């Protein structure tokens, strides 16, 4: 007899397929470089590194969800409120991450572009948006916002930024490459 999948398991299968498509179809078709390239005896980040890490995280989350208890629960109003809260939080954090750096230099003659790879200016949007995202997610999960959550979010954002920025001389932190 075929065992009926719960909604969680169907969701896990959907995101597993999405992760496989991202890693093995979309990234190879969309990028011309590998994960890490050697250019003039220097290691540089390839265009495929960021999306590949994201795809692997999606795959890992799908496997964890599939291996969970698989309790079949109906979608409720509180679930929809949670999803709406996440959507609003991500939208706010990503807009701040994208536009805070350029807004910082909006009134200067040079603009933001010459400073987008210069510390500390290249960290402004990433750290602020990352802090809001991590602190906000923690606060939403606990249903209580605290400064400690945002301090942890700031530290986590610093570690992520440094993990991307320090090993590679020519890497521009997201979203600075687009501005």
Major sheet, described briefly?
Answer: 2 strands, antiparallel
Class inferred from helices and paired strands: mainly alpha
Oligomer: single chain
**How far do the termini sit from each other?**
56 Å
Number of strands: 2
Beta-strand content? under 5%
Q: What is the averaged pLDDT score?
A: 84
Helix content: 55-70%
Counting H and I runs of at least 4 residues, what is the number of helices?
A: 5
Secondary structure topology:
Blueprint: H1 7-30, E1 36-39, E2 42-45, H2 49-67, H3 77-104, H4 124-142, H5 147-165
Antiparallel strand pairs: 1-2
Helix pairs in contact: 1-2, 3-4, 4-5
In short:
Helix content is 61%, strand content 4%. The chain has 179 residues and is mainly α.
Describe this structure in words.
There is one protein chain. Helices cover 61% and strands 4% of the residues. It has helices at 7-30, 49-67, 77-104, 124-142, 147-165; strands at residues 36-39, 42-45. It is globular. The protein starts with 6 loop residues before the first helix and ends in a 14-residue tail after the last helix.
Which descriptors apply to this entry?
4% strand; 179 residues; mainly alpha; 61% helix; two-stranded antiparallel ribbon
């Amino acid at each position: 007899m075929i065992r009926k999948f719960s909604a969680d398991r169907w969701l896990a299968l959907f995101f597993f397929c999405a992760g496989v498509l991202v890693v093995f179809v979309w990234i190879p078709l969309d990028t011309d470089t590998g994960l890490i390239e050697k250019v003039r005896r220097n290691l540089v980040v390839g265009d495929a590194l960021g999306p590949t890490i994201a795809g692997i995280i999606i795959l890992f989350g799908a496997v964890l969800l599939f291996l969970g208890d698989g309790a079949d629960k109906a979608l409720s109003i509180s679930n929809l409120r949670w999803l709406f809260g996440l959507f609003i939080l991500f939208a706010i954090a990503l807009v701040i991450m994208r536009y805070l750096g350029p807004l910082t230099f909006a009134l200067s003659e040079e603009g933001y572009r010459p400073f987008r790879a210069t510390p500390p200016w290249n960290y402004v949007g990433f750290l602020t948006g990352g802090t809001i995202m991590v602190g906000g997610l923690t606060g939403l999960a606990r249903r209580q916002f605290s400064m400690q959550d945002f301090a942890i979010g700031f530290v986590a954002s610093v570690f992520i930024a440094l993990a991307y920025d320090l090993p590679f001389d020519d890497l521009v932190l997201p979203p600075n490459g687009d501005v």
